[in-house]
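Milestone M4 deliverable, item 7.
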Amino acid sequence: MSDIQYPYYTIKSLGDLNCKEDKIPGYYVISTATINVEIADKINVHEVNGVNKKNKLFIQEIAKRLVDESKKKDDPPELVVHIHGYANSRKDARKRYEEAWEYVNSPDSKLELAKSNYVFIGYRWPAEPPLKEGFDSLKALPILPSCILKISSVVVISTILLLLITPWLEVRLNLLSLLIFVIVYAVCTVMFIKLNLPSKTAKLINLYLFFNEIALFVPVLLCYIFFIIICSQLRIFSIILCGLIIGIISALIILRLLTYSRDRFRASNYGVLDLVEFFQDLQAEKIRIEGITKSRIKISFIAHSLGCEVATQTIRILADVFDDDAINTVKNQHSSNISAVFTLGRLVLVAPDIPIESILTTRANFLKSSLIRCEEAYVFSNEADLALRLASTAANYFSFPSKDRYRGYKLGNVTVNRNPNSPPNKNGCQDPNSPPNKNGCQDKYGIVNVQKDKLQNPHQYLEIRTYQETERKTLLELSGETQLKENAIADCFTYFDCTDYTEEEPEKGILSFARKKDCLTLCDYFELCLAHFFGFPRKIDTHGGYFEGKFCRGLIHDLAFLGYEQLLGDKYYSNQDEFSNACKNRNIQVLLASNLLASKKIPHPCDEG
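Output delivered:
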């Protein structure tokens, strides 16, 4: 078995249309990493050879398709990789990829299937749905907090029972107090052993744990006798103190049950490396078929949530910092070539769970090193994203080195200033020539930063909004500068603020209630929590709803497959104004990156010097 290469991933086909030449083939690549390291992989040892053979056949099929397309057409063949985000189960990930694949092969898509040279890949890394672990999370609790949790629970429960029973009997019964304590302690001990040991554990180990519990019981009992029975005035204090301890440990357990930190670890340590392995195998197969040629495979990414980190870190690994292209990049000669056979195309980040610091800092970071090689880059965000505002920022509080909450926000929290061009009027709007809506704000949607054919830098329009109007901060305020440099990373993206995004028939908000407010309030977030978690009064997915709305889902995939320039063609949108109006009709705010101007005369904002 030592000579057998254990597979890092498995490949399956999406749908049954791959045999048709006029369809874009789709594949489902699944990392074989498991949710927990103790769980054995589902692939049996005897099946490893079979999985490796299937993977090899699929790799050959994908490589042959791409090589054949490169010989038929002048344009390079393209591989579009879709990567899911935080807390997506395997079933949910496959469903999203199948829907995406069906869309690009449907008449609704902007692609000319007969002329297409694409291959679609849906990549599944081992994410975990929240709360799935349940009581198993207690098994992973370290010994010290586990013992503290048990002792605190025993003290609280037994003391409360004592306070309830003593008045009823109208007498102080110390023996009754001891009896209650012993019973509660015994019950908690049995539960502790059951939770921490599998059912088929050696009796010797059970006996060892039993004597450990007896040894712990004696000092705990003595403390209980002194603080609860002898010093009866300390009972309430003991309940409060132990309750506080239980609350702190329970908060840590809840954070674990939300799975955010665990998902981030798996994304960085399993998801990235297994995807790199797939690209290595594909590169080796292409070189085997035709050797190293000038023909390259263009890779574009659609990434959602934590999948954005998987995508950008994968690009960073594939782009060797010591190769000639990377060295030329440092010298401002931007090359999209990565590895021996790939070139980087478009990068579409949807609700990116990437620190906002990555677009503010002047230091080297994985986002910048990925971004400078992209032809085009897009960010889809919205103010109402509860996953990024709650789970992500809560985890950042413990791990991210910032001294205020603003720098702890994510790129997916960045929104477009509703009224960026004029001082506020008495209604709170910033354009005195435009009438306010019923909420006192100007409805400014569509392309915002192109006025009279003149492009303004996107970073001038970006901000972080909280539930308090007084706490909103612009990107410039966060950076501490009066003006970002011309080569600012923030200006390399085209931004789509989908906070008020609506669909027609009937018109309703997809990612929020779409009330067109200048800033969402605490009451708005409370309503969104009810809608997001409990489906009241209707279900709203504030984090993944981008793929549920027809227009937004189509826009994401069309940009990834075609890019902005091809999208503005006679067959799609005749000009930039028509595209702007289409976004405006659905209440989406757009900030164009400098390299998307039709004139193409303004230098790329990532160019230094």
